[in-house]
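Protocol step 4 of 6: structure prediction from sequence.
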Amino acid sequence: MVTKHIPTNIPGLDEILQGGFLPNRTYLIVGSTGTGKTIFSLQWLISRQAREEKCLFITLAEDSAEIKRNLTGFHWDLSGVKILDMSPSGKAEDLKSGEYNVFEPSEVEQIPAWKTIVEMVEKYKPRNIVIDSATQLRYLSTNEYLFRKLILGLVNYLNRKQCTTLITFEPTELEKETSVALAVDGIMHLRRQVSEGRMIELRNLEVEKLRGSGYLSGYHPLRITSNGISIYPHRVKFTGTIQYERELLPLGIPQLDELLQGGLESGTITLLTGQAGVGKSTLGMQFLIRSIIGGKKAILFTFEESVEFIVTRSRALDMPVDALLKNGQLKIVKVNSADQYPDEFLNTIRIAVEQDGVDVVMIDSLRGYNIVMEPFGSLVAHVYNLTHYLSVKNITTILVNEIEHITGDLKLTELGVSFLVDNALLLRYAEIDGRILRVIGCFKKRLGSYQPDIRELEISPEGIRVGEKIAHLQGLLTGVPQRLP
């Protein structure tokens, strides 16, 4: 018989645990001070009391009044949660002895704390329990051997009583006392650190053990907000067969569509790369607008420019952004690159694709995206994960990339991700006869043919214009061309 999971109602956690906690089992929530163990546990407990299940919160470290005071910012209703205050500053309830047969009476009587927990469970008969924290139980035990025996007995006792239990524990103590890890059915580790490069707080959750169920491995970014804890699962998108009909999406600029032999194929990843100010973002916006005219829905994620700046520039180029924003066909989202997890950003894209029905995604730019990636490992791995998800969902994607050098050796990108894209358009400055030209060329198109021409690109109040093939110059890609003899 397949055991049904219990939803945790902590955003993102049920996906990580592939449905939630298994009932009548005990889970260890490990984390140092300030990682959110108490918030995590109470958020789960409150979700269970909302289902009219009996819930018991046992605090051994922090007094109940202080806990309630610290939770006022979340506006949570704790009225349905029974709190047993066994903290040094609190006073445990005066309970009568109940029936229990897991421990020897002599053992229990020697340790009042263990006795009180058992008596409360017998009297209140909760379905869901939090013990915060078992580290204090270890300190209260007369020796390590007795603690190991009692903690193993307590876990077995709670499981037999059909309680689903969360026990918080300090990581340093867990290293000393591995018997706790062996006793429980699952271990979740909460971490908090400060990024050396960005000097911001980074939090994550890792599942280290989970009996009876699969789970998503890895570090899952975690954020504590006024609504409680939200977790952003780190999803690794595996390669697979992608089958769907593609359509050709024109850019609406005759000479550029001619260069691309009709346009860009739907569901592909296109890189627009070049120096600052050469027109990458403008060309990307042109493609979004043309796709919307063709019946698509588009979204632009901007890491650097403000939404107001993008709208103002687009108006100046006679692009109908206001009407498209008003009717919801186009959305522009400013991403704070100093305070964003990669998996959090991917989750935002998933919502846009799977809930809002977006067909075209533009990310401006990869340099801003790289700032987000810096504390989290390989940029290439994260971009691969992102682009593969979008390809599988048949989303047409535009990636904008800035090249620092104005002249010199040709590089599509200095970030090492050009192999991940299906199409690559290079925009570049060139100087001739004391005048600066913008030029454009296609360097890669996996699913179709293209003309290997270099053409002049002009941006004016009338919009974008692409000229004919530049046949009288050579060395355009160096930035310093020469006339042909």
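Step 5 (inspection) to follow. DSSP finds 16 helices and 22 strands in the chain.
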